[in-house]
Amino acid sequence: MIADDSADDIGASEPAGAGGGSSSGTQQYPPHFSSLDLDAMRQPGVPCEVAGFGARDAEGSAGMTEFQVGQQFQDKEDALLSVKIYSIRRGVQYKVVESDYRCYVGKCSEFGNGCTWLIRPSLRQRKGIWEVKRYNGPHTCLASSISSDHRSLDYHVISAFIMPMVRADASVSIKVLLNATASHYGFRLTYKRDWMAKQKVVALIYGDWDESYNKLPRWVLGVQVMMPDSIAVLRTNPVRVGGQLDEFKAYFSQTVLDFPTVYRGISSLQAVG
C-alpha cells in the first residue's frame, strides 16, 4: 500500500539537517555536530590518505618524500591516489599519457620543457599488486602558482580524506568538511565538490540510495509472506516544482509496518502475582 502524505508541508526538497533547532528553539546539539577532532578521526586501520607518498614533513618542501622504484600499491586506485596527493602537496600539475588495466604513466605538465618528472606504475600479475617500475623525480620545474584549486583534488581524493570523519559522524556538515579539507590540503573547494565526495562516502559506508530503495519492496514482500496478516504502508511526499504540485512524481518518505497478531498477543497478556 502506498500512501500520499499530501497534507504534509514539503516546501523544501532538502531534509532538515542535524544543525537545525527544534520547534521550541531550545534544543542543544553536541559539539561534534559543528566541529570535529580531526586527530581522533584518523582511526587505526582507516587511513585518511596514503601516507608517505608526497607528504611534507616538518622541514617543508625540502623534506618531501619521493616515490621509489619497486614501491608497491594494493591496486591501481591506490597508486593513482598516491600520485594525485603527491602532486597536490608539491603544487604541481601532471598529465596522464597512458592508462589501462596493466599500466599507468604520468608526466609533469612541463615535461620536455625543463622538467623530466615521470612515473610508471604497472600491474604485477603474479602478485596482483601494482609496483613503480620507472620513476624520474623529483620535479625540476618550479611549482606552479595554484591559489584556489588543484585539478588533482577531485572527489576521489577528497573521499579518501573525509571517510573517517563521515564514518564517525554521518551527520557532519559540508561546512566542517570544507574547512577540514582546506586546512589539510591548502585549497578551498567548492561546496558541490565536497558534497559529491560525501555522497560517495555515505554510499560506500551505508550502501547506494537507489540500490537500497530498490531492495525495499522485496524486503516488505518477504515480511508479508512470512507474516500474512502484517500491513505495510509506503508513505510518499508530493513534489513541487515552482510552487506547483507535480502529480506524476513523489518523494519516498517512510515505510510503516503493522503487525496485528503481535498487538493481539501483547494485549492478551495478564500480570502474574
Automatic annotation (TrEMBL):
Spell out the residue ranges making up region: Disordered. Answer: 1-36
Sequence ranges assigned to domain Transposase MuDR plant in this UniProt record = 67-129
Give a Pfam family name.
DBD_Tnp_Mut
Matching InterPro entries: Transposase_MuDR
Its recorded name reads Transposase MuDR plant domain-containing protein
